[in-house]
């Protein structure tokens, strides 16, 4: 046994204790794909999926992937530089056109698209300005860039969604160029970027915005192209990063921008150059979902919004606190780790999967269950979940906010 084993053992203390008490909530193994699955033989409705349009299991999507397996197999065994197919290029062109950008590059994950983009653009002449609730891919891209010998950019954080705080960062920046990083919808709180005000400030300081619209693609704007469409900001946000892993049914990262910018990043991003290219069956699945969005995006997005509206108004009526959410991602604030874990367990026993978010994913006192409403949930799924949430929420004092200390042993 080396020090590595000792370190792992010590750092797993909290996980081990949760497993011993049978309240460990992660890595439950699904027995099929989609929003309606099973865990250990028990049917489950999944509200922790990001399959926002419920299209991952659509027969046409599966059919397209199966055909691509026959033509291209499951993997291309190399990176895009020497493993690009006509399917990749066709889809990049179609996506760029759909989104209203000159060019698009398909990475293997959204995480890699962001990390590679930041490492390609940020250098010693750059200040990166991040929202303090930024996703891990923005943080990691920034920290990797900041660790590049001789080229480290300056890094500043602004208070979540605050235009005043962003302005303070821009005013006092020490480097010639600045990049502002935003997300279309923040995935832990389900709130949209305050994009119009932030853009107005960024424009005054000539600071381009990179927007990670992973959760806005397929969900915002009439056609589902994202936050830019929703607020009519075409041509004003030069770079958008997104993913196939939410509304577009698979896995894969997306970079949108002007031709030269995308081309430059394709030749610089180490996460693009040194990682295998996206398998064609996944490209084919995304391409089929894009067909559907192009044909009738308005109906698909409208159906998602109908479900989200129904769930939001019902949850509020039942007395739940949804924090700052104003989208289909709804945190059910428990503000207590035990409440969040016990709610998760009780719901799972009753056939509903809702993942709890606890410290360090969120601050202490901000513990919650995250409920992702999708177009693929039926009214029956929503009603059953509302009834269970109400029952268990009352049992664990979630709606009333009372302390559970006297009733439930500490973990
Ligand atoms: C805001 C945001 N950006 C990027 C990603 C990464 O996407 P992918 O799953 O394609 O790596 C995620 C997924 O968790 C996300 O929530």
Describe the structure.
The protein is an alpha/beta fold and 411 residues long. The mean pLDDT is 96. The chain is globular, with a radius of gyration of 22 Å. The strands form three sheets. Strands 3-9-8-7-6-4-5 form a seven-stranded mixed β-sheet, sandwiched between helices. The protein has a three-stranded mixed β-sheet with strand order 1-2-11. A three-stranded antiparallel β-sheet has the order 10-13-12, with helices on one face. The two termini are 30 Å apart. It folds into two domains: 143 residues, Aspartate Aminotransferase, domain 1 (Alpha-Beta Complex), CATH 3.90.1150; 201 residues, Aspartate Aminotransferase, domain 2. Bound molecules: pyridoxal-5'-phosphate.
Stretches where pLDDT is under 50 for at least 5 consecutive residues are none
Mean pLDDT: 96
Strand tally is: 13
Shape designation: globular
Detail the topology: elements first, then pairings.
Layout (H helix, E strand, L loop, with lengths): L2 H9 L1 H8 L15 E4 L2 E5 L12 H14 L13 H14 L3 E5 L2 H12 L4 E6 L4 H11 L7 E5 L4 H9 L5 E7 L11 H10 L4 E4 L14 H4 L8 E5 L9 E5 L1 H10 L1 H4 L6 H38 L11 E5 L3 H13 L2 E2 L1 E3 L10 E5 L6 H17 L16
Parallel strand pairs: 2-11, 4-5, 4-6, 6-7, 7-8
Antiparallel strand pairs: 1-2, 3-9, 8-9, 10-13, 12-13
Helix pairs in contact: 3-12, 4-12, 5-6, 7-8
Bound molecules: pyridoxal-5'-phosphate.
Descriptive key words:
binds pyridoxal-5'-phosphate, seven-stranded mixed sheet, Aspartate Aminotransferase, domain 1, alpha/beta, three-stranded mixed sheet, Aspartate Aminotransferase, domain 2, 14 helices, 411 residues
